[in-house]
Amino acid sequence: xxxxxxxxxxxxxxxxxxxxxxxxxxxxxxxxxxxxxxxxxxxxxxxxxxxxxxxxxxxxxxxxxxxxxxxxxxxxxxxxxxxxxxxxxxxxxxxxxxxxxxxxxxxxxxxxxxxxxxxxxxxxxxxxxxxxxxxxxxxxxxxxxxxxxxxxxxxxxxxxxxxxxxxxxxxxxxxxxxxxxxxxxxxxxxxxxxxxxxxxxxxxxxxxxxxxxxxxxxxxxxxxxxxxxxxxxxxxxxxxxxxxxxxxxxxxxxxxxxxxxxxxxxxxxxxxxxxxxxxxxxxxxxxxxxxxxxxxxxxxxxxxxxxxxxxxxxxxxxxxxxxxxxxxxxxxxxxxxxxxxxxxxxxxxxxxxxxxxxxxxxxxxxxxxxxxxxxxxxxxxxxxxxxxxxxxxxxxxxxxxxxxxxxxxxxxxxxxxxxxxxxxxxxxxxxxxxxxxxxxxxxxxxxxxxxxxxxxxxxxxxxxxxxxxxxxxxxxxxxxxxxxxxxxxxxxxxxxxxxxxxxxxxxxxxxxxxxxxxxxxxxxxxxxxxxxxxxxxxxxxxxxxxxxxxxxxxxxxxxxxxxxxxxxxxxxxxxxxxxxxxxxxxxxxxxxxxxxxxxxxxxxxxxxxxxxxxxxxxxxxxxxxxxxxxxxxxxxxxxxxxxxxxxxxxxxxxxxxxxxxxxxxxxxxxxxxxxxxxxxxxxxxxxxxxxxxxxxxxxxxxxxxxxxxxxxxxxxxxxxxxxxxxxxxxxxxxxxxxxxxxxxxxxxxxxxxxxxxxxxxxxxxxxxxxxxxxxxxxxxxxxxx
Length: 785
Ligand code: ATP
Ligand code: MG
Hints:
Layout: H1 13-20, E1 24-30, H2 36-49, E2 58-61, H3 65-88, H4 97-110, E3 116-118, H5 120-131, E4 148-150, H6 152-166, H7 176-188, H8 193-198, H9 203-221, E5 224-226, H10 227-240, H11 242-251, E6 254-257, H12 265-276, E7 291-296, H13 311-314, H14 316-320, E8 332-335, E9 337-338, H15 343-353, E10 365-366, E11 374-379, H16 382-399, E12 408-412, H17 418-427, E13 432-434, H18 444-457, H19 462-468, H20 478-490, H21 496-500, H22 503-507, H23 511-530, H24 536-546, H25 549-556, H26 559-581, H27 587-596, E14 610-614, E15 623-628, H28 645-659, E16 662-671, E17 673-676, E18 679-682, E19 697-699, H29 711-723, E20 740-743, E21 747-755, E22 762-767, E23 771-775, E24 782-784
Parallel strand pairs: 1-7, 1-8, 2-3, 2-6, 4-5, 6-7, 9-10, 11-16, 11-19, 12-14, 12-15, 13-14, 15-16
Antiparallel strand pairs: 17-18, 20-21, 20-24, 21-22, 22-23
Helix pairs in contact: 1-2, 2-3, 3-4, 5-10, 5-27, 6-7, 6-9, 7-9, 10-11, 10-12, 11-12, 15-28, 16-17, 18-19, 18-23, 18-26, 18-27, 24-26, 25-26
The protein binds adenosine-5'-triphosphate and magnesium ion (MG).
C-alpha cells in the first residue's frame, strides 16, 4: 500500500471497491448508515490522490449546503493526512503548528478550493454565472450574469403582488403559497404557461395560468430566477447550445451524486446531459475517461412532493450502463453493513420498512452490539410527552458524562410540534435549536441589507429596489412609488431603475420625493462603480453607514433594534467568512449563496444544543440519542397520506429515516390526546407502532400497547393481506359508509368516510360530541352494530 492510499483501510471491501472503481458508471445502493456518504467522500479524495485527477474535473452533488461543507472539510483532512506523510514523513498530528498551517493553506489553494461540491441549486447558479447570457428563452427574455435569485419568500411575494395588484383578486382565494406551488409543479413538468393553460378545466386553473405567465415575465424583467429556473435554465441551455454543454461536459469528468433517490426528472436530465454530452448511451464511447457515481437508498426516498422520483435510482444501470445481463457488479455495488446504529435500532428499522410493498429487499447487518432496547412511551397529551422526553434527556445527560446536549435530537413530522418541547426545554434551561425555524436570511433586516446589495449588483431587480428605496425613510412614499411604477409600465415594463435615473421622470415628483430618489440612486451608483474593484465585504461595510440603515436602527434604540443591529453585524461576518472560504468571492457569488442558504445551514455545530427538527430535515444526519415523537394516526402518518397507499409508504420511509438517525438510543412516543392547530382531539396510535417488533421494545404500558401485535400475529396478517385478492376484502375489512360502530374509548359513532383499501384501510368516524376521528380498525377495538 502506498502512502497515498492509507486512508482506504478505513473502508470495508465493498466500499473500497466502490471507491477504487475508476471510470464508467457506478451505482451504490444500500440501507441507512452503511457508509454511502463516506464512500462518496473517500472516492473524491482517491480520484485526486491516486488517479491524479485535477480537482477541477470533479463535480459532487450533495443534498444540503451543510453536507457539502462537511464533505469538503472531510476531504481536506484526507488530503492533509496524505500530504503530511508525503512531505514531512509524519502523521498530521505530529506536525508543528506552523507546518500544519502552511500545509493546510497549500492544500486548500491547490486542491480543495477547486472541487465543485454543492447542492444542485448552488452548482447550477455557479454554471449560470458563467453562461446565462447565452441562454435563448422562447419568449425572448434575457438574463445577465448578475441575475438575482429569488428564494421561496421572494417568489411568493411576487405571486402575491400579481394576484392582489395586477389581477385585483383575493389572496385568500388564490393563496400565494399554493399558487406558487402550482406554478412550480408546472415548471418541473416542463409546462409553459400556454401548455399549462390548455390543461386547465376551470376558472381557477386559468387564473393560475395567467399568474404563471405574468410571474415568469416579471422574473425576467427583474433579471431574476427562482429555484426551479436555476435547474431548468441550465438544462434548456445545454439542450440548445452544443458549445456550452461541450465545455461543461469536458470539464466535469467525474460526477458524483449523494441521495440519488431524491433526484427529480430535471436534475436527472442535467446529470445525464453533463455525462453523455447529449449523446445516446449506445453511441457514447468516452467511459475510459470519465465516471458517474451515484449513491442512494430507495427506502429513504421522501421528497415525492417535490417531484423526486426514486425510479430514477432504480433505472440507473439501464440509463448509463453497458449492463451485462449476468454481471451487475460492474455497475452496481451493495453495502450491507451498518456502522451507525446498534443492532436493536436496526432491527426495528428493518422490520418496519418490510411493510412497504414498493421496494427491493436488501440486507443491512448490524456491526455494533445489541445496545439498549427501544423505549416506546404513551403520554396523556403533548405536554406530558414533552415532559417525559426532557426528563429522559436530563437523566441521560446526568448519568453519562460523555453525552453532550448536541448528542440529542427530537424529530417530528410537522414544525408545529416543536412548541411543546421548546417550553419544557426552556423551563429547565437546556440549550436547544430549532432547525428549520426562521432562516437567518429571512429576517427582515437581513433581507433589507441583501436587497441593497442586490440592487447594486442587478439594477433590474425592481423587487429589491422597492424594498429599500424608502428604508430608512427618504420621502419616497407609497404614492410616489406607484407613480414611478406606472411610468415604468407605460414604457413597456422597463426596470424601475431606469425611471429613477431618468431626469424628466424625477422632475415630475414633489421636491422632497425627488430629493430622496436622487439620494438613493446616487448611493447605489457609487457602489455599482466599485463592484469590480472592491470586495463585497468592503461594499457592505461602507453601505451600512452611507445608506443610513445602521444609523436608523441606533436612533430607534429599542432592544429589538439592537438585536437587528447584531444580525446585520453577523451578516458582515458571514460575508467575510465567505470570502475566506471560497474560490469565487464576488458579491454575486455571495448573494447566490445567501439566497440558497437553507434552514439547515443555520444549525450551529459549535453550539452544544439539543436539536429539534422535522424528519425531512434529518436526512443524512446521525445522533447518539433520538426521540421520534407524535406517532399518531393523522399526524404521522399524516392525514393526507391515509387515503393513499403510496403516500402511506412514503410516510413509512420517513419513519425509517427517523429511526435510522439513532446511533445508541431510540425513544418513540405518542399521545392519547393532542392539541394541534388549536383544537384538542383524542388521538389513536400510529399504524407504524403495530409494525415494530415487540421483542425489541419496552413500553410504559406493559404489553398494553393498544392492539399491538406480536410478531407471529403480524406474520399472519401479512399472509392474509397477501392472499386477499384486491377488492375482495376479508370480512374484517368490509366496512361501509354509514356503519354504526362502538369504539372502546370514544363510544358509539358513525363511519363517514373510508380511506384506502385492503389491509391499509382507515375509517373516518364521527363520534357525537367528540368530532371526527381517523381510526385504523386493525389498531382499535371497534365493533360494528
Ligand atoms: P444515510 O443513508 O443515513 O445517508 P450513509 O449510508 O450515507 O447513511 P454514512 O453517513 O456514510 O452512511 O455512515 C454512517 C456512519 O458510519 C458514519 O458515522 C460513518 O463515519 C460510519 N462508517 C461508514 N463506513 C465505515 C467503515 N467502513 N468503518 C467504520 N465506520 C464507518
Ligand atoms: Mg448519507
